[in-house]
């Protein structure tokens, strides 16, 4: 019987059944990582970001600027 495995299922159906728990865990982790990356990018793109503004005054000596 061409295309049948020992279990009597075709190759593609057998591969889909074989995904199992580890495959589902990997898929869930991959989706979670992608969602975290996309969410972080959206947060950085749309979150209000105001840099702290502070006036800086510093006196530079004339010796640093040769004439």
Q: How would you describe this structure to a colleague?
A:
With 67 residues, this protein is an all-alpha fold. It has a domain at 19-45. It has helices spanning 11-17, 20-46. The N and C termini lie far apart (95 Å).
Q: In percent, how much strand structure appears in the residues? A: under 5%
SS element count, helices: 2
Order of helices and strands: HH
**Oligomerization category of the chains in this entry:** single chain
N- to C-terminal distance:
95 Å
Average pLDDT across residues? 81
Q: Helical content, roughly?
A: 40-55%
**Class based on secondary structure composition and strand pairing:** mainly alpha
Query: What profile does the largest beta sheet have?
Result: none
Q: How would you briefly describe this protein structure?
A:
The protein is mainly alpha-helical and 67 residues long. It contains two helices and no strands.
